[in-house]
Structures are given as structure tokens and as C-alpha cells.
Amino acid sequence: MAERLAFLHRMWRLVPQRLRRAALQTASRIAAPRPNRPPPATSLGVQIVGEMGRISGLGEAARLLHSGVAALHADAGAIELAIGHRPAPAHPVAGAALILHVNAPSLPLLLARAPHDFLRGRRVIGFWNWEIETVPAAWHKNTDFVHEVWAPTGFTATALDAIMPGRVRVVPYPLAATLVPAMADRAALGLPDGTVVVTVIANLGASFTRKNPLGAIASFRAAFGDRPDRLLLLKLVGASLFPRDLAQIRDAIGASPNIRLIDATWTGAEMRTLLASSDILLSLHRAEGFGLVPAEAMLRGIPVIATGWSGSMQFMNEQSAALVPYRLVPVIEQRGDYAVSGARWAEPDHDAAVHWLRRLADDPVERASLAARGKAYASSSLTLDPLATALQSCGIARLD
Question: What is the pLDDT of residues 113-141, one digit of tens each?
Fold first, then answer.
């Protein structure tokens, strides 16, 4: 039997990856449970379902959403739903609604591991993130696993509305109400005093090309050369899984003495301290569904230089952030994550980024003024109010 299974596995690996994925999706769609329709008019609390322990933007976002629900006294618990050799998810709490913080392509595969009655008799809400204007057609096939979808930004909601009109609601992450306090501590991080620290944080698993760390490095080097009183701190997540991306970043850095690369795994506390210890947060992204890092930086009173396009415009504008102009160009991305016909994203203006870096680095008064405006605007944009309204509109009652 073992030899037969090994032979079948080898034969399976010979099938092209695209066909393997399609076959797995089809099988998962058949096996995965679906919710009843229509949904119940009322629910007693809500449970967040997703990769709650994952070290990633999606994992952190799921935890933020869970914290927001708890702050509104509607938390019926969280359920880990993940790919891999993990226990099957627990049964939901009786009477609770479910928010599946899992993007559409992964839903069937994850739900196929759940009990057959996992969604039965419950209101089921998808919380989906997407970074460009057009959603892949394959997402439409998985809309029948949810009653409606919440999107963190109007940008993402507009894209999703094309495949499920009238069933998409904008619910930004309530980051202003759930932010964990942090203090600057340059000594703990080995950062020098008297130096302007420009921080870039990029998860290479979230598309190396989209996050655009090479653009950030090029802009910093053009702005400051090897000036010792200017430091670019490039904090990477997931670098060990993408050695080719990491090699490109190292080549771009070269022998620059004022660029520091960190590819170690840091705790949440260390990441918060890093942001609080920074003078400028730089995000020359080509597209964002939300943008947790710039949002958190603004809320912590750190001035942000960012590409002025896509989901991050939910919590920033020309008065609250140093917006870098851009031109929309066809998406070219080696991994194929955004292989959508006609897909576009932003190419940030290099010269404008250089200008903003010099301007803010040379003027601490302007940095402080922009930071204050950014904190005020993000604080008013990322409150609990949209989440509270969404829960109420869906008939989800508090637990107290």
C-alpha cells in the first residue's frame, strides 16, 4: 500500500501545477459545507474564523478584528482554521454568527476540513482583502460560501462588488480602538541617536513586487547617498522562504553603510517598538488592500511617505501623509498572484519619493506637523463605529 501511495504521489506531482490547483479547488468545493439561505435574522455574538496564529498581515488583521468585536462585547470566541497538519476546527458556539477572515480562493480548501454542519443555521460573513481594481473570476465561484462580504476599504469593496453586487459592506479594521501602546526604545534595537531613521517593513510572502522594497532602497540611496546621519532600516518578514527576493534586496543594498537589513522573526512587541522608534515610515507599495503598517505608523504619530493609491487611501489623504504620485501600469508579477486580464497597479514616482524623503528628513518641525495630522486623520478613520454598525445591521447581538 505504501509503495502504491508513493507511486500515485509521484504521478500527481507530474501533473502541471495549474491543473493540480484546479483539481484541488474542485474537490474542495464539493466537500466544503455551505450556509443555509436565507441567514438567520439574529445571532448571539460572533466568532472570528481564520488563521488566528499566523505571522502575516492576514493573521494580524484577523486578530485586530477579533479585538474589535471583543471591545463591542460581541465576542463569542475565535476558531483557528488553517491549512496544514493541524486539528480540525472546533464546532462554533451555538447561536453565534461567523466571520470567515479567509480570502475567497482559500475558502473551499479550509472549509473542507471543517465538520459538515460547521456553517449550518448561522449567518456567515466573509472578510476579504484584495489589492487591485479587478478581482479574479475564480473568486465568483466561492461567493456561495458566505451570505455577504465585508471589505476593509472602499477600494477593495468596489472591486468585490463586481462579482457580488449589493452584498459587500465597507468595514475598516478598528485599529484606532485596538492599538497596543508602545514606547520608542532605540537602545534596545541598536539604533543610533541623532540619526533620522527611515523604516520599511515588507512581508515577502505578500508579493515582493507589490511591496516594492527595491523602489524604497533606490529612493533612499538617491536621497541620501551614504550619509551617516540617515539610516534606512529594512525589516523583512518571510525572507527565508523567498531566497531569490532576498538576494535581489541584498544586491540593491550593496555596500551601503547606512542601510540595515533585518530578516529575523520579531515579536509583536519588537515590531511596535520599531515603529515607535522610527522618524519616517516609507511605503512605496504598488497596491494595498488596506495597509496595516502605514495605518499603525500614523496612529503612533510617525509621519508616513506612501504611494497615493489603493486601499491605504481609506485612512490617509494629502493633508495627513506625504503622498507620492504615481502612474497606473499593467501588473507584471512573477508569482502570478495578480494574473487578472487588464490588471493595473501603481508605479510610484521615484523623484517625488526622493523629494519627500529629503524634505521630511531635513525638517523636524514639518515631520512633527505631518505626524500630528496623520494621527488625527487615521484616528478618526479607523474607529469602532463601522464595525458596530455592521454587527447591528446583521442582527448580531452583544453578549452582555
Answer: 888 899 999 999 999 999 999 999 889 98
CATH superfamily for domain 186-381:
Glycogen Phosphorylase B; (3.40.50.2000)
Q: Write down the pLDDT at residue 5.
A: 41
CATH architecture of 30-174+384-397: 3-Layer(aba) Sandwich (3.40)
Residue 306 neighbours by CB under 8 Å, 6+ apart: 281, 282, 283, 284, 285, 291, 294, 312, 316, 321, 322, 323, 324
State the pLDDT confidence band at 1, using cuts at 50, 70 and 90. Answer: very low
Give Cα separations from 62 to 28, 147, 360 (angstroms). 23, 19, 33
Q: Which of 78, 89, 82 is nearest to 49 (CA)?
A: 78
Cα–Cα distance measured from residue 110 to residue 81, given in angstroms and rounded to the nearest whole number: 6
Would you report the helix, strand and coil content of the chain in percent, each value rounded to 5? Answer: 40, 20, 40
Q: Residue 350: its pLDDT value, please? A: 98
Q: Is the pLDDT of residue 85 over 60?
A: no
Describe the strand order of the beta sheet including 124-127 as a list of residue ranges: 75-80, 46-50, 97-100, 124-127, 148-151, 168-170
Residue whose C-alpha cell is 525638517: 363
CA atoms within 13 A on the CB side of 283: 32
Question: Rg of the Cα trace of the chain?
Answer: 22
Whole-number Å distance between alpha carbons of 183 and 263: 22
- The domain ranges of the chain are 30-174+384-397, 186-381
- Are the folds of 30-174+384-397 and 186-381 the same? yes
Amino acid in the structure at residue 202: A
Which secondary structure element, helix H or strand E, spans residue 169, and what is its range?
strand 168-170
Is the model's pLDDT at 18 over the cut of 70? no
